Amino acid sequence: MALKIVKKKNPKEIIPKKIAIITILGTINSDKALYTKEKTLKLDIKDGEYKNMFPLLYDSFKNVKEATLIPIYTKKAIEIQKSVLPSVDIKENGYEIDEEKFDEIFNTINSILSDNSFTDFIVDISHGFRHLPILATVSMIISNFQDSSKVKNILFTKEIDKFKHYEIIDLKDYLEIANISFVLNTFDDNYTVAHHINSQKYSSLIKSLNNFSNDIMALNLSNLHNISLLTLIKELEKIEDISIKYMAEQLKQNLLEDFSYEDKMYLTFYKISKNLFEKNYILLSLSLLYESIRIYIKTIIKKNEKAVVLKIEEFYKNDLYKLGDFFKKLYKRDYYYLSEKEKSTISKFEYEKLQLAYKRNITTPSLIKDIEHTRNDLSHANSKEKFEQIKQKVSTLIERYNTSYNLNILLN
Question: Which of 247, 231, 256, 250 is nearest to 180 (CA)?
Answer without folding.
Answer: 247
